[in-house]
Amino acid sequence: MNQSTQRKYRDQVEEFLSRLEHRARILVALAEELERQASKSDVTGYRPFREEVDNFKALSLVISERFAKLEKHPKKEELEEQFHKLQVVMLRIVIKTSLKFFFVMSAKTVLPLGAREMFQSELRTLYEAERMISDPRYISQLDDSARDDLDTAKEILEEIIEHAPALLNFGDRKKKRKK
């Protein structure tokens, strides 16, 4: 690959890392807001945080793709280090915020219809976080409390899922009527 193309990829990585850092700041602010509103929090109050986590993850995938195209560039290692630091920030925020939110939700006697599906999606996110925590690039930057918090969050979430109402399935009802 020629030098001009490599420069283009490096510039893209730098721009995307800047955007990722901005997303991390938004995540921190949303997590702080959720913590302040913890006692009043509900499923819909958690949605903006979740959407921002998804945005962060999507942008991270784009950056990973650009890194793969960036060959032997002098700044590649420095940029990758910055990327991994932002991933650790995101992991810490997701684990801590999820744990607090799930703890609050576990105390609720009534959850909205569809809560089961939403929380099942959250469980996948926690398993993804667990996979990332085991990655050597991240494991050295996270203490044991992160893994403990993640395990606790998964346990609470599994309990919530067990009791949360699912969406109504009108498709099954139609089939029974036709008979």
Which features does this protein show?
7 helices; 80% helix; 179 residues; mainly alpha
General description of the model:
It is built from seven helices and no strands. With 179 residues, it is mainly α. The protein has one domain. Helix 1 packs antiparallel against helix 2, helix 1 runs parallel beside helix 3 and helix 2 (43-69) runs antiparallel to helix 3. The chain is elongated, with a radius of gyration of 20 Å.
Element-level helix/strand string: HHHHHHH
Q: What is the total number of structural domains?
A: 1
Mean pLDDT rating: 86
How many distinct beta strands? 0
Our Rg estimate from Cα atoms comes to: 20 Å
Broad shape? elongated
Class from helix and strand fractions = mainly alpha
Strand content: under 5%
Largest sheet: none
Q: How helical, in percent, are the residues?
A: over 70%
Poorly predicted tracts of residues? none
Helix segment count? Answer: 7
N/C terminus separation:
64 Å
